[in-house]
TrEMBL record:
The lineage of its organism: Eukaryota, Viridiplantae, Streptophyta, Embryophyta, Tracheophyta. Residues 91-153 form the DUF659 domain. It comes from the Eukaryota. This is DUF659 domain-containing protein. Residues 11-36 are annotated as: Disordered. Residues 13-25 have a biased composition (Low complexity). Coiled coil: none annotated.
C-alpha cells in the first residue's frame, strides 16, 4: 500500500472589497495586494506547519529518538531534500539496503583505511567501554586507536 499525504486544505479567501471613486480604487488595489501577500504568508506558515507535523509524526510512529534531530546529519538531510529536484521521491527500501548501503560503506571505509595502515606501522591500542542498559543487558564498545585516530571494531 502506498502512502499519500493528506492534502493541505486552506479556507478560501474572501473577495476583494469594493469601493467607489479614484481614491477608493487605489485603496482597493492596495488592500488586494496586501491581502494577497497576507494570504500567501498564511499559506506558507500552514505549509511549514504541515511539514513540521509530518516530521514529528514520523519520529513518533517509528520510535526514533528525538536526539537524532540535534545531529548535523539530520539537518544536512533536510537541507539536501529542500534543494532536491521538485519531483524528488525517497529511495525505495531495496535501494537503501543494498546499493546505498554499499556506497556508504565505501564512503566510511576510505577514511578508516588510514587508521588500519597506521596500525600496521605504529601499532594499535584496543580501548573498550561497557555499561548496562535499562534492561540490565551489558553493552560493550571496542575501538582500535592509532596515532590519535579511532575506529569502532
Amino acid at each position: 500500500m502506498s502512502y499519500s499525504p493528506n492534502p493541505l486544505l486552506f479556507p478560501r479567501s474572501s473577495g476583494a472589497s469594493t469601493s467607489s471613486g479614484a481614491s477608493g480604487a487605489q485603496h482597493s488595489q492596495n488592500d488586494h495586494k496586501s491581502k494577497g501577500k497576507m494570504t500567501a504568508e498564511m499559506l506558507d506558515v500552514r505549509a511549514r506547519d504541515e511539514v513540521d507535523d509530518a516530521v514529528a509524526r514520523f519520529f513518533y510512529a517509528q520510535g526514533i529518538l528525538f536526539n537524532v534531530m540535534k545531529g548535523s546529519m539530520f539537518h544536512d538531510m533536510v537541507y539536501i531534500i529542500n534543494h532536491a529536484p521538485k519531483d524528488y521521491m525517497a529511495p525505495k527500501y531495496d535501494k537503501v539496503q543494498t546499493t546505498l548501503l554499499d556506497k556508504e560503506k565505501k564512503h566510511i571505509d576510505h577514511p578508516l583505511s588510514t587508521v588500519k595502515e597506521d596500525g600496521a606501522t605504529y601499532g594499535v591500542s584496543i580501548v573498550s567501554d561497557g555499561w548496562a542498559n535499562i534492561k540490565n543487558e551489558t553493552l560493550t564498545n571496542a575501538m582500535a586507536v592509532s596515532r590519535g585516530r579511532a575506529m569502532f571494531i
